[in-house]
Amino acid sequence: MKKPYTIAINSVSGGGKTSLAKLLQESLVASVVFCFDDFDKTNRYPEDFYEWWKRGADLREFDCPGLRKAVDEEIRTARIDFIILDYPFGRDHPRFENLIDLSVFVDTLLDVAMARRINEGLRCSCRKSHFRSFGIIASRVGPLLKKSSLCLS
Fold it and tell me: What pLDDT, in 10s, does the model give residues 114-139?
């Protein structure tokens, strides 16, 4: 069984991960997109982002077992050639670091990303914690650049 080529699109919240992932899916035959936000019910987040930051902002305190389970199931079916992960952590998180073949970091200006999050929040019922944690997560951008295969500005 041939493993699908896995592309991770990572960025800050509101950075354009989903938009790029959907465009990429339209261009790649036999591809599927998995979005981190679609697994909110099984994702685990730190209770208090400020306390998490003070403890050292360990990304392992975030987890997405439902997303990984869905990806593993798709790999087992062997129906697709490409997996596109709309996933904020790229190779920085142990849940997917060994699965990702190409990591693309979308380097979005933080004011643009914040405007996109606000706009999205007006269109849907989003988690309030996304807004509260925006500044904390945005400050983790530097390390993401180091493990990305490609950086788009």
Answer: 887 777 765 555 454 444 444 444 44
- Host domain of residue 74: 5-152
Domain of 106: which CATH number? Answer: 3.40.50.300
Rounded CA separation 140/12 (Å): 9
**pTM, whole model, 2 decimals?**
0.75
**How many distinct structural domains can be found in the chain?**
1
